[in-house]
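Lab notebook, bench 4. Still working through the backlog of constructs that have no structural model yet. Next entry is a single chain of 130 residues. Request: give me the structure tokens for it.
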Amino acid sequence: SVTCTEDVAFFDEQEAAREATGAFLGDGYAKAFLRACKSWPRGELPGDFHTPVASEAPVLILSGALDPVTPPSWGERVAQTLPNARHIVVPGAGHGASGVGCVPHLIAEFLSGGPADLDAGCAERHARPP
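Model written out:
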């Protein structure tokens, strides 16, 4: 229900095919959601649901360079309205970069001290598995 309401309602088969060009998994996953959501119940979204969040709070944004679901460009877009954000892209990670290599340690450091003094070099050097 969440995916049908928040995501699938905003694209169609043509857009799914266009966005999947060259993607490892193609557009089959998106098309399966489109089919399933035709008969699945949906909730209501407030009119400002897709309005970017603006905040002065420290924010840690993690992206996997190999993530086909939420690519690093989305992290950059999110950071535009969060002036105290730190966006770390993990080169060898896909979707779910928060559990890769030293990233759990970086999350703990961020929660203790914020984005300014965070040394993300270990994550930025994380290589793709063979």
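Notes after review: DSSP finds six helices and two strands in the chain. Strands lie at 59-64, 85-90. Flag for follow-up if needed.
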